[in-house]
Specification:
Bound molecules: zinc ion
Number of domains: 2
Number of helices: 8
Order of helices and strands: HHHHHHHH
Strand content: under 5%
Radius of gyration: 19 Å
Length: 186
Amino acid sequence: MSALPDTTPSCGTSLDVLSRWHDGDVADPVLDRHIQGCAECRASLYDLGSTGTAVAGMSGVPYAAARVTETTARQGRRDMADFVHELALACLALRGNGRASPDPAPAAEPRDFAAVAADIRSLDRRLRELGVRLELAELPPAEPSPAQALDAARGALSALGKLEGASERQRRALAAADATRASQQS
Ligand SMILES: [Zn+2]
């Protein structure tokens, strides 16, 4: 059964269960919620999705497989938006005084640029295998210098807007970029 990914998620969800969920054979709200919060399960599902045709042919339920592949693609888009948002924050952090943020309680320190960029590349590759191409041309191609960091952040935030539309987190990050720029000009 070559459709199964190589790695079993360490959260304890079996590949067999994931495969049946992928086929649309498992209706379990608890599992739905777990998968939404579990990056490892989703990574396995992207692998399953990239072989969706084989899975559909095998199970005899092409509609279910197509539907679930669509769901996986939608989830992938949300995951990508999270990564792109984090990339924008990583760019702001590179600016040095990026802490002059109007946000009183940033959720978490962003990881560094290289780590986030690697996740974006990996997810983009998996989504392309599913036939999903996201518009990422505005992302900075490489880690920006401190002088380029604000423009890089703005590019990432523009890409974020294309992925999820105008959002509160996009607005806040743009405001942080504006505040940083203002504080540098004064
Ligand atoms: Zn899991």
